[in-house]
Structures are given as C-alpha cells and as structure tokens.
C-alpha cells in the first residue's frame, strides 16, 4: 500500500493499493483519521484501524493505538471477567437436573469397516466387469 495524498492537518489520506483486494473494486481509499472512517468500511464498522488506516498512520508517523476502540483494550477485556455471579443460596430454588441426555446424530455414524459411505450415484458407465482372478504362476 502506498499513501498518495496526505493532509496532516485534517488527518485525511489517500491510500492506493498496489495489489487490489479481491472483494473491492476500488484501487484507492480515502482515510479520515479524525472521523475514524475509511472508504472500505472496515474501520467504521469494527472500530479498529483497517489496513488502509494503518498505512496512513505509518506514513504520517502517527500512533495507531489511539484509533482503537476502548472495548478492544486489554484492561477492558479483563474487566469483563471480573464480574462474579452470586450462587443461588437455597437449594430448593435450583432447577431439577436429570442428567445429560445425549442424542447421537445418525448421519454422522461410520460404518463398522471404517470406510466412508459413497454419495455417488452409480450408472452403467461405472459398472466394472468382474473378472475371475488367477494366479500368474501356473
């Protein structure tokens, strides 16, 4: 990727891809770091810098970490797991448990010979003449 135009004051960059992405028809993307947007749509949908925004940050020597949404930061991830759930104090309020009921999927059952079941439809072209095998030493 290559940054073709750069406006450091407005934090607007034009990033050109040297090899276009498969799913995008455009070869050039406008990145607005102040608005946290990119023409590809990934930056604003994930709230995480896309590859075009990272190229713009690298070209302008800007720290890309400030454009990451706080939900992705490590301290916030740890806060999510700090919450403790209080146990239900009275056992009479617990729902009855009858054990685990497993229901196997018959479609995933293998044959006893460990061979896969052929899903091919046989026709007259697939028929092979059965020839009696003989030993070559007579």
UniProtKB/TrEMBL annotation:
Pfam families the UniProt entry points to: SWIM
**Zinc-finger keyword on record:** yes
The answer on whether this UniProt entry bears the keyword Zinc reads yes
Q: Which residues form the SWIM-type domain?
A: 29-61
Keyword annotations from UniProtKB, A to Z: Metal-binding, Zinc, Zinc-finger
| Recorded GO MF terms | zinc ion binding
UniProt cross-references to InterPro entries, sorted A to Z: Znf_PMZ, Znf_SWIM
Alphabetized PROSITE patterns for the sequence: ZF_SWIM
What's the name of the protein?
SWIM-type domain-containing protein
Q: What is the lineage of its organism?
A: Eukaryota, Viridiplantae, Streptophyta, Embryophyta, Tracheophyta
């Amino acid at each position: 990727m290559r940054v073709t135009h750069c406006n450091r004051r407005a934090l607007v960059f034009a990033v050109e891809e040297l090899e276009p992405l498969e799913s995008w028809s455009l070869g050039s993307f406008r990145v607005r770091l102040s608005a946290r947007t990119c023409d590809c749509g990934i930056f604003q949908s994930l709230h995480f810098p896309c590859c075009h925004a990272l190229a713009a940050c690298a070209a302008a020597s800007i720290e890309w970490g400030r454009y990451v949404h706080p939900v992705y930061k490590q301290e916030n991830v740890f806060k999510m797991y700090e919450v403790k759930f209080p146990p239900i104090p009275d056992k009479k309020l617990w729902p009855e448990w009858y054990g685990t009921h497993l229901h196997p999927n018959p479609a995933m059952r293998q044959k006893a010979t460990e061979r896969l079941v052929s899903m091919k439809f046989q026709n007259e072209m697939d028929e092979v003449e059965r020839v009696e095998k003989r030993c070559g030493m007579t």
